[in-house]
Every structure is written in structure tokens, then in C-alpha cells.
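testing teh design pipeline on a random one, pls ignore if ur not involved
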């Protein structure tokens, strides 16, 4: 059996389990609610002065930082946000004016934080262990097919569905929000690159891009995060023969790691966890990372290292496992 035929077979299995349709349904429901919320927000803001509202937000954030009753991580994030909002005021740009393109662009940040990794984990955490539950693993492994081809086909299939999930999410975000928000504005200017330095907030690194190009960068960074999650999901699915164990472990890692990076800012070793680097598109947009030294380059290298390590462990385990063990 050729490798392409194996990939086709795995794709049909994924479709038959209807996981992808469930993922699409979840995204449609969530995006519809958020788009409607943005529509209501737009109607409320029409009678307000955005400059006054933004200045009020800056004043509130400054008071929170001045009181000193928040964690260092949260204080760093607020200082970065203050600088970002002041930058928009100085350049006479409303940072919160919702449009369909802006909504689709922000989906990469908001969903890349936890939603998309969870959906990819649902798709892939039992891609191997499900064979055990269905009783087809022994039949598959005893056929005259190299084991690395079997696992490689599963991995390629999951990468494809992870990519499709991200693309469908962005497309659905635009189409759904365009019903209630202004559909145009892909050439609107965006500003990114707000960085914290020893002097405070460094504005010299701020860069301007049209919205469509900024969205491509953000979705590209989110794709790297999704590939890392998919690789780790396959590794867990190989290591655990139980679908519940592999899915539960992956979900616990995603949720627990996300909470850990926010409640334990002093444990700097946590910056080497793959979960900490998943909001990479948000860091690109100006959100302050929870730990020092987490540049975009560092996050990309960290995610790729986790992905490569997970793939190596998965292949070694899968190819050396006793078929009837």
C-alpha cells in the first residue's frame, strides 16, 4: 500500500469519526456569539468618543500599576497595554473599532490562546489509541506495511486537519462577522512590535502593516503552534493505549499549563513549556509574555523543538512496540 493511499485511508477515518464536523460546529457557535457581542458593542460605541474612552482605560491601568497590588506579570502586561493605547491616541486611530477583517484577524490571537489547541487535541489525541479501542491495531500492524509509514500517514493527516481547522476558523470568523459588521477594511493600518525594555516600553520597534499582511503573519505563527500541539497529541496517542488517557492528558496539559504560567510568574522554568509559547500570535501583536526572554524567535524555536522531540519519541515508540503487547 502506497503512502498516499495510507493518508487517504486515515483521512476517511477522521471524517467517519465526525470529529472535524464537531470542531467546525463548535467554532460556528462560538464565533456567532462573539460576533453578535461585537455588533452590540459597536452600537453602544457610536454615541461615545473613542478618545475619551481610551484615555479612561489608560488612567485605570495606570492606577492599577501605581497601587502595586498586582503580580509582576500582570503589571508588565498593563504597562505594555498602556503604551499601545497611547500610541493609538497619538496617531488618531480607534483601536477598538470592530470590522469583519479586524474580527477575523483577532481570531488568530483569541483562539490561538486555548480554543484552537483544544480543538486540535480533540482531533489528534486518539488518532493511534483509537485503533486499540476499535480492535484494528493488531490487524494494521501485522500487514506488510512499514510501521513508520503507518504513523507517518497519521501524522500527515493530522497536520492537514490542524491546518484546515485554522483556515476554516479564520474564514468562518470573517463570514459570520461580515453579517453584522463592516465587511471592508483589509488595508487598514495595524501596529505591532510593542516591547518592554529596561527603560520601560520600547516604541522604536513598532511596525506598521496593512491588516491583510498582519493577519497572514498572525495566522502563520498560530499554524506553528497548531503543528506543535498536533505532534504532541500524536506522541501521547502512541504512548497511551487508552483514548481517554491520551485525550485527558493532553487537555490537562493545555489547561493546566495555561493556568500555571499566570499564577506562578516567579517559576521561570515554565517558559520552556510548550503551552507558554502557544499564544505566539498574541506576543507578536504586543501582549507581554509571562516571562522575560520570550521573544518571537524563542517561541518559534521552542515550539519546533517540542514538535520534533514529540515526533521522534512517537516514531521510536511506535516502531519498537510489541504488536501483541
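output:
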Amino acid at each position: 500500500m502506497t503512502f498516499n493511499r495510507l493518508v487517504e485511508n486515515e483521512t476517511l477515518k477522521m471524517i467517519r469519526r465526525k470529529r472535524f464536523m464537531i470542531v467546525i460546529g463548535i467554532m460556528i457557535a462560538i464565533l456567532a456569539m462573539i460576533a453578535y457581542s461585537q455588533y452590540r458593542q459597536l452600537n453602544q460605541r457610536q454615541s461615545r468618543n473613542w478618545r475619551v474612552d481610551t484615555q479612561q482605560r489608560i488612567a485605570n491601568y495606570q492606577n492599577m500599576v501605581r497601587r502595586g497590588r498586582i503580580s509582576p506579570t500582570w503589571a508588565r502586561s498593563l504597562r505594555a497595554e498602556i503604551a499601545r493605547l497611547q500610541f493609538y491616541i497619538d496617531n488618531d486611530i480607534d483601536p477598538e473599532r470592530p470590522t469583519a477583517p479586524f474580527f477575523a484577524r483577532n481570531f488568530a490571537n483569541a483562539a490561538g490562546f486555548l480554543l484552537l489547541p483544544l480543538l486540535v487535541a480533540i482531533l489528534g489525541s486518539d488518532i493511534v489509541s483509537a485503533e486499540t479501542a476499535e480492535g484494528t491495531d493488531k490487524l494494521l500492524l501485522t500487514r506488510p506495511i512499514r510501521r513508520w509509514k503507518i504513523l507517518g500517514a497519521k501524522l500527515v493527516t493530522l497536520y492537514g486537519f490542524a491546518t484546515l481547522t485554522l483556515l476554516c476558523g479564520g474564514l468562518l470568523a470573517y463570514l459570520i462577522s461580515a453579517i453584522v459588521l463592516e465587511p471592508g477594511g483589509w488595508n487598514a493600518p495595524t501596529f505591532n512590535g510593542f516591547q518592554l525594555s529596561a527603560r520601560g516600553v520600547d516604541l522604536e520597534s513598532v511596525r506598521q502593516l496593512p491588516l491583510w499582511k498582519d493577519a497572514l503573519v498572525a495566522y502563520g505563527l498560530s499554524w506553528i503552534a497548531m503543528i506543535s500541539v498536533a505532534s504532541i497529541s500524536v506522541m501521547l496517542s502512541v504512548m497511551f493505549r487508552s483514548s481517554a488517557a491520551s485525550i485527558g492528558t493532553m487537555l490537562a496539559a493545555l489547561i493546566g499549563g495555561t493556568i500555571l504560567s499566570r499564577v506562578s510568574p516567579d517559576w521561570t522554568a515554565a517558559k520552556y513549556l510548550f503551552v507558554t509559547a502557544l499564544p505566539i500570535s498574541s506576543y507578536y501583536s504586543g501582549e507581554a509574555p509571562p516571562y522575560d526572554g520570550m521573544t518571537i524567535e524563542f517561541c518559534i524555536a521552542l515550539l519546533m523543538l517540542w514538535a520534533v522531540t514529540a515526533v521522534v519519541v512517537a516514531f521510536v515508540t511506535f516502531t519498537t512496540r510489541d504488536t501483541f503487547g
